[in-house]
Amino acid sequence: MKKTKTIFQEGNHKWIAIVRDPAKPNYLIDTNEYLVTHDGKGLLLDPGGAEIFPAVFSALSSEFDPTALVGIFASHQDPDICSSLALWLEFNPAMRCHVSWLWSGFIPHFGGSADTFVCLPDEGGDIPLDGLMLRAVPAHYLHSSGNFNLYDKVAKVMFSGDIGAALLPPGEDGLFVENFDRHIRHAEGFHKRWMGSNEAKRRWCERVSQMEIDMLCPQHGAIYQGGDVQRFINWFDELQVGVVND
Amino acid sequence: MTTALATTGNKTPQAGADLLRIVRINEEIKSVVNVAFKINIMALNAIFLAKRAGTAARGFGVLSNELRVFSQELRDCMASLTGLVYGCVGEVSRMLQDIRYTRLLRQAVAMSPVAQLSAVLAAREIENERHAESLGRQRKQLKMALEDAFRMVELGGVLAKSAKIEAAYGQSFAVPLAQVSGEFDGIVEEIRVSLESLRRSAFFAGK
Ligand SMILES: [Fe+2]
Ligand SMILES: [Fe+2]
Description:
Chain A is an alpha/beta fold. Chain A is 25% helix and 28% strand.
């Protein structure tokens, strides 16, 4: 089963990371799911693949009443992001899925109906959660061509999807980045190969370095906090992406 | 072949409903666990109070120790309930997953009756059955654990009521002793009512 860890809490406003399942088979890439709760309502960020639905569902229920989930935020269209969608909807058909307009015709292949999807325009937009305003921040081509991060300006937490992702070896898979230089080696190959556009990366780095971020939470690997957030942005800014050795 | 999921058409809402039921049970148990946590502090309070009252409340003193033991046992009991309900949530969500895949496979077999695909479907159904049996076992265990918890809490209620009676003999400490035992009784009753409703959940009607 996956573990849960509260990474931010202020009254009834919480960020909970759902991570690291020792029972997960190795051929599935490890993913982090995040739950944002406010006033008893919850939004699940990148709920994960169909294969890990039982692990995510049971871990989430140990912390939060899943009937109070109102929606899903899908950073992009990948199977490790939201192929579990049909199962979540089978449990609660009223849940809404916020996703780039680009994928609104593709993701229904994973499940959902015409009523399920709330399309985000390219410039992003606000996603309300029971009095809390979350912001979908554009991160197109990083790596998906219709891609968003989710920013919580109250918590100063940014869910960055595949940006900041690292494929961590056993023994170095703590939830938070502890030694940036050591950690970033496990992120380099991922960013070079999966991220497609240096121009888009430039714009993302400019945009997010203007934002107040205490924690940058990727969908794979470890969370950057404090000074490591800017350290990551600087590192990413320097990196040449869209590289393939063919 | 008859299997647990042989009638997939109407099993899906069944598993969905089961998941909703076990989620409700989980929520109720989480709130009971929180309440049970308070009991430990109350029992400590009762012991301190009894110590201060000394010989004036000897009977209450004996009971307050019993209440403390009870509160510790209740905590262990709640921990095992939490573990069992966690297992059930996992198993039911796995069955929901089974049902989706089985439905898709069955549609595929109906459209192209390839022998190999039928074999895949059959293997899938055996797996489904294994999950259903495992859920059945866990469901039974959870039911038994709930019964145990219920009996334990009923005993706690008796202790709390005796403490209320003993409090009356506490002379100058009668009022605070009555208050602490009254609060204890109130909390135990709250847990008892929660457990009572859990035992009646339709989740336990499934096999
Ligand atoms: Fe991706
Ligand atoms: Fe990913």
